[in-house]
Design a protein that fits this description.
The chain is mainly beta. The chain has one domain. Strands 1, 3, 4, 5, 7, 8, 9, 10, 11, 12, 13, 14, 15 and 16 form a 14-stranded antiparallel β-sheet that branches. The longest helix is centred in the first third of the chain and has 10 residues. It starts with a helix and ends with a strand. About 45% of the residues are buried. This is Ig-like domain-containing protein.
Length: about 220
């Protein structure tokens, strides 16, 4: 039972898995069609609404805090016009690696530390106009590392072989929302006694509110 519960940590690599969306092992394109994201050139932040859950089998781990915010660079920024429009597909933007905290498991005596990174490439988010509007969060190889301590000392690495795109839906609103439901996430685990080792599969669910930080009176909107 403890081993199955530790596997729930692997799902956290989705967040990788906290903005976000069925997974692929490449930053695959969304279905073709005209897309425009506005306001062009504005910065945005994505903040967890509720809880992020990471589930393996019958075991779930929960995180209460997750966000990706601008830091003064080109990340977390809608492309300036005309880059915010694509006649034949999705519009994408680089983002800062989402952070995760307030994470717990039901295993007594086991602590969890989650570290996201852009060591092997850039994180990004894409949106494709449609009904519903679809979205994808792409993390680079090894974009999240989870370590447990205490009763079991384990390391799980997300997206171990290359970029992974996690798909979900987008809803325009005040604020707009990116929702991910039971998205599969690949990870690999190492460690000693009670640790999940080798290739792992888990699911990630979360909802993120996406707000305009350049002009909070405006909304981040996806259209045709």
């Amino acid at each position: 039972m403890a081993t199955r519960r530790l596997r729930a940590s692997a799902a956290l690599t989705a967040a990788t898995a906290a903005l976000t969306l069925g997974a692929t092992h490449a930053a695959g394109a969304l279905s073709a069609g005209s897309t425009t994201v506005t306001p062009a050139g504005h910065s945005f932040t994505a903040k967890l609404n509720g809880k992020a859950t990471f589930t393996a089998g019958s075991t779930t781990m929960t995180c209460t805090v997750s966000a990706s915010a601008p830091n003064g660079t080109a990340t977390n920024k809608i492309p300036a016009a005309p880059g915010n429009h694509n006649d034949a597909g999705a519009v994408s933007a680089p983002i800062n690696p989402p952070t995760f905290s307030g994470c717990t498991t039901s295993i007594f005596g086991v602590g969890v530390t989650v570290t996201s990174n852009a060591t092997n490439g850039q994180w990004s988010i894409s949106a494709q106009n449609g009904s519903p509007v679809s979205a994808a969060l792409t993390m680079p190889k090894g974009g999240v590392v989870i370590k447990t301590s205490g009763l079991a000392s384990c390391t799980l690495t997300a997206s171990p072989t290359g970029p992974t795109s996690v798909n979900g839906t987008w809803t325009n609103g005040a604020p707009s929302r990116l929702a991910i439901a039971n998205a599969p996430v690949a990870a690999t685990g190492t460690g000693g006694f009670l640790c999940p080792t080798g290739n792992q599969t888990a699911t990630f669910s979360a909802a993120y509110d996406v707000t305009d930080t350049t002009d909070p009176a405006q909304q981040i909107t996806v259209g045709g």
